[in-house]
Amino acid sequence: MTSYDALLLLSFGGPEGPEDVIPFLENVTRGRNIPRERLEEVGEHYHLFGGVSPINRLCRELKAAIEADFAANGVDLPVYWGNRNWTPYLADTVRQMKADGIRRAAAFVTSAYSGYSTNDQYLNDIARAREEVPDAPEIDKLPVYCDRPGFVDPFVDAAKEALSGLPDGARLVFTAHSVPLSQPNREHYVAELERVSRTVADRAAPGAPWDLVYQSRSGPPTQPWLEPQITDHLEKLHGEGVRAVAVVPVGFVSDHMEVKYDLDVEAADRAAELGLAFARAATPGTDPRFAALPRHLLGETP
Ligand SMILES: CC1=C(CCC(=O)O)c2cc3nc(cc4[nH]c(cc5[nH]c(cc1n2)c(C)c5CCC(=O)O)c(CCC(=O)O)c4C)C(CCC(=O)O)=C3C
Ligand SMILES: [Fe+2]
To answer: What's a BP term from Gene Ontology annotated to this protein (predicted)?
Structure first.
């Protein structure tokens, strides 16, 4: 079905113990203009969870789910996994692929959208890792998949499920990671987020109002980022008489720290203070429809 001889799962990486937290944050923010206080604050989020981000476990589970999907559908390709910011580092994975005789791999990235942070930076990661490995395998990133049923359908079900536990008239609030307004290709990222949010809203709660908001901003306060921030938005909705919100994290593929802290702790606490009923929709995670996406995308490659 394809001329690729491996699939590479490419992700962000996260700490797996308290001693990893600072070195991980240093890796993420190297060469970037992130205030020291923001780093200390984010470090605390990780320490609340024992210094362990869920993201590496989620990647191991997704890798296993993709392998199961391949096996069940007669796709005989090995699956490798590498990260940008923590072990297993991508360059080490590429070195292993080379040692195993892999010549040409397709990369499935744990980010569904166009834009710099969500696409271009992963292309840079691949280029940099390949430069570190003599005679490295070719690696092509699979296409942006935010509009694919394997990504959208699990969110539709999750949005319905979140709404089902809330009183009538609950507002659907879609959320994604904020980025600086100056970030290259930001307009593509935003256009896709709006499109996915509209699709999910139309299917989960036809005709009901919905909003797209942002979370997890960092950077200096003087630098403009995508807004509104979810916590400010919850206050605004409350002021308008909304009494319940279903938050749907369409910007992410799994329940990593930006979801487990910034939504399940920070946004949920703000909602509780306001007296807003709050439900957070699940992310695709290891949904079999999501785990089948790499196979579907590979099926379209020459
Ligand atoms: C668009 C986007 C995604 C979604 C696409 C994708 O999934 O890739 C994403 C995902 C993630 N971001 C993550 C963690 C962090 N991101 C940071 C910083 C930043 N993120 C940015 C954007 C995004 N980030 C930006 C513009 C910055 C500023 C610095 C820079 O321009 O790079 C910082 C530094 C501290 C802070 O400022 O928060 C941390 C620790 C984790 C891991 C979570 C875990 O451990 O479970 C994940 C999945
Ligand atoms: Fe981030």
So the answer is: heme biosynthetic process
